[in-house]
Structures are given as C-alpha cells and as structure tokens.
Design a protein that fits this description.
The chain is α/β, with parallel strands linked by helices and 206 residues long. It has 8 helices and 5 strands, in the order βααβαβααβααβα.
Length: 206
C-alpha cells in the first residue's frame, strides 16, 4: 500500500466558511481523494493558520518548515508528499516572492530529509496552488487581497517547473465563493479531492 502525506492549512483541515467548525470527514479534500484511491493511505496534516515558512502569531507554531521534518519522520515511509500552502502567507501580508522561497524551502526539506532507514526513500512531491479568494466576506478579504491570491497559482507553477515537481492548480476546480471568502464549501472541498485522484493515480502508477 502506498502512503501519502497531505500537508496544508485550514483548507486541508476542512474549515467551514460559514462558522468556526469543520466539515464532515468525507467532505475534506484528503478524505475525498482517498475515497477513490482504495490502495492508498492518505494522512491528512492540515493546521489552521499554517504558513510556508514565516512567523504568524497565534496559539500554535504555524511555520510549515518547522513542522515538516517531524511529520516526515513520524509518518515514514512515505510515497508522496502533497503540499498546498500559501493562503495564510497572502492573508498575513507576506510578499509573493517570499512565498516562493517558503515553498522552495519545503521542497528542499522533503528532498534532503535524513530518514535514517535504508528502506525509507525520498518520497515524490506534488505542489498544489491553493484556491482563489472572494472579496467582501467576513474575514476582511478585499479586492487587493484577492489580487494577491491570484498571483500564487503562476508562482507555484513556475517553482514546480524549475524544481521538476508535479503541479496541480486547485483554482481550476475550487474557489472560495461563499461564507468568509477564504475557505471552501463542503461540496467544493470534496470536488477538489476528487479532481486530485487522477493525477495522483498517474504519479504513483496505480
């Protein structure tokens, strides 16, 4: 059986855009993806507020680059690490060129992690550009923030090409249209997971 680590933020955790709650398990994109991949174990590691590699004040440590090595060691051996981050960087005012460097650091962490076991080889990677935002919602998402969010897709695509990493643009199937303007409705989150089944199946030769 293959093992996948889905590494992300509240979009991976399954935040509901209408309240502070969480989608039912079957509506979170990692679970929806796993439903079509019965020969795969999908480990969902979504943390609300997580950034790529930058400090964000709050109740937890949100820097993805500080969490990732521990998770790679915890869940080894892994066949694929899927990274979908950048939303909280944009929301926190991190410049897009810094987000590029944050994502690059995460790729390098996966590729150079000392797994310490001869059977624990370096997993494959997939970079996922997060969904786009909607303005005028409850979390203060304005037109400028929406525009910054739209820059992430091309940025992640460019990085993926440069580092020879498979890429998926979540904005092709998912957009935060209702509620708070940042998080996905249940059916949209589920659709994202279903859309990822085919590229993952191809990548892992399933």
């Amino acid at each position: 059986m293959k093992t996948i680590l889905a590494f992300g933020d509240s979009l991976t955790w399954g935040s509901c855009p209408f309240n502070a709650g969480r989608h039912p398990r079957e509506d979170r994109w990692p679970t929806a993806m796993a439903a079509g991949l019965p020969e795969v174990e999908v480990i969902s590691e979504g943390l609300r507020g997580r950034t790529t590699a930058y400090f964000r004040a709050g109740v937890a440590e949100y820097r993805g680059d500080l969490h990732l090595p521990t998770l790679l060691h915890t869940h080894a051996p892994l066949d694929l690490v899927m990274i979908m981050l950048g939303t909280n960087d944009v929301y926190s005012g991190i410049p897009t060129h810094n987000i590029w460097w944050g994502l690059r650091r995460l790729v390098e962490i996966v590729r150079h992690h000392p797994f310490g076991h001869p059977d624990h080889t370096v997993p494959q990677l997939m970079l996922i550009a997060p969904p786009t935002f909607s303005a005028g919602q409850t979390l203060g998402v304005d037109d400028a923030l929406v525009e910054e969010g739209r820059k992430i897709g091309p940025l992640v695509s460019e990085l993926a090409q440069e580092m020879d990493v498979p890429f998926f643009d979540a904005a092709t199937v998912a957009h935060a249209e209702a509620g708070d303007g940042l998080h996905l409705e249940a059916h949209v989150s589920r659709a994202l997971g279903e859309a990822l089944q085919a590229p993952v199946r191809k990548l892992l030769d399933l």
